[in-house]
Every structure is written in structure tokens, then in C-alpha cells.
């Protein structure tokens, strides 16, 4: 019974929190990350 309850809540949360991502959104995010403003820096480091 516990396994069935766990499975039910897992599937419910999967469908509840799923998001659709548009092609335009992906292009915007990738363009921002690849821009010269980011300067290829690591997380927490300032640009060169």
C-alpha cells in the first residue's frame, strides 16, 4: 500500500510541476549564456 501511495504522489507531482519550454525560450537562454557579457567565467568568478 505504501508503494502504491508513493507511486501515486510521484506521478501526480511529475504532471503538476512539468513545464513546457518553447524554442524561443531555449534560444534566449543559450544566447545569454553564450554572449560576450558572460566572458566564459566559472560560477562565482568575475570576468577577466
Keywords:
48 residues; mainly alpha; 0% strand
Q: Can you put this structure into words, describing what you see?
A:
It is built from two helices and no strands. It has helices spanning 2-17, 23-34.
SS element count, helices: 2
Report mean pLDDT, rounded to a whole number.
78
Q: Largest sheet at a glance?
A: none
| Number of strand segments | 0
Radius of gyration: 19 Å
**Which bin fits the share of residues in helices?**
55-70%
Question: Would you identify the regions where 5 or more consecutive residues have pLDDT less than 50?
Answer: none
- Report the span from N to C terminus: 57 Å
Strand percentage: under 5%
The helix/strand series, from N terminus to C terminus, equals HH
Overall 3D shape: elongated
The computed structural class is mainly alpha
Quick rundown:
This protein has 2 helices and no strands. The protein has 48 residues and is an all-alpha fold.
List the helices and strands and how they pair.
Blueprint: H1 2-17, H2 23-34
Amino acid at each position: 500500500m505504501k508503494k502504491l501511495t508513493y507511486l501515486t504522489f510521484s506521478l501526480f507531482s511529475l504532471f503538476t510541476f512539468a513545464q513546457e519550454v518553447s524554442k524561443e525560450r531555449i534560444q534566449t537562454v543559450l544566447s545569454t549564456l553564450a554572449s560576450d557579457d558572460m566572458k566564459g567565467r566559472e560560477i562565482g568568478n568575475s570576468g577577466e
